[in-house]
Amino acid sequence: MTGKRRGRTGRGWDAAPPRARRPRAAAEQQPSSTDPPEVRDPPEVRDPAERAREICLRQLAVRPRTRAELAQTLQRQGIPDEVASEVLARYSEVGMIDDAAFARAWVSSRHHSRGLASRALGQELRRRGVDSETAGEALAELDSETELATARELVARKLRTARGEPQALLRRLVGMLARKGYPPGLAFRVVKEALAADERTAEVADHLDPDAWAADVGDPHESVDREPETPA
């Protein structure tokens, strides 16, 4: 005998699925014109000069900047040119922007930390908007004897762990110095001296071809050792 079909109990596997809740109407989700002032988001109206000052302060808090770097940042942020000029002029007057001090610090820091020579440092300063006269004064503090000593230190450090045939070592080491901005003649001389002083390569150092490295290095003016830019 077939029993009566039992109704759903409301529990267990045969329970009816829950009814979906109706979403609130758009009018209920958005604040209306009758909402109190603190609920509504009024459009932001700010003084461009105030925005420009805040942008500059945030940039300078990360690292020193040149006037040209700050001007580019303000332009990207939509600050009117006349407002940007006034703010930057004021910051220059009070010493918060000082391209000469920036250039001197940049030359000292990048030479000692990365071993860059004058030519590479000059390129970096120009990319940051430092004018030629200001850059030249900063680079004048890096004398040729200091550059020579740094080049020798760079080569000696690399040579301690380098492996390969003398001609291959010559190409790699001269190429390394060229990318850091050292003149080709100085680079070859420093590397040849280092190879002559190393017992592994001393016997063949005098016979190394000074032109053998040129094809591998390419144009040293286009291959200066660089570091990634700090995001603005």
From TrEMBL:
Domain RecX third three-helical positions: 145-191
Cytoplasm recorded as keyword: yes
One Pfam entry name: RecX_HTH2
Subcellular location: Cytoplasm
Biased composition (Basic and acidic residues): 37-52, 218-232
Domain RecX first three-helical positions: 52-90
Annotated region described as Disordered, given as residue ranges: 1-52, 202-232
UniProt keyword terms in alphabetical order: Cytoplasm
Keyword Nucleotide-binding tagged: no
A single Gene Ontology CC term: cytoplasm
Domain (RecX second three-helical): residue spans on this chain: 98-139
InterPro entries in the record: RecX_HTH_1st (IPR053926), RecX_HTH_2nd (IPR053924), RecX_HTH_3rd (IPR053925), Regulatory_RecX (IPR003783), WH-like_DNA-bd_sf (IPR036388)
GO biological process, any: regulation of DNA repair
Domain of life: Bacteria
Function: Modulates RecA activity.
PANTHER family linked to this entry: REGULATORY PROTEIN RECX FAMILY PROTEIN
Family label: Belongs to the RecX family.
Protein name: Regulatory protein RecX
Species per Swiss-Prot/TrEMBL record: Natronosporangium hydrolyticum
Gene of this entry: recX
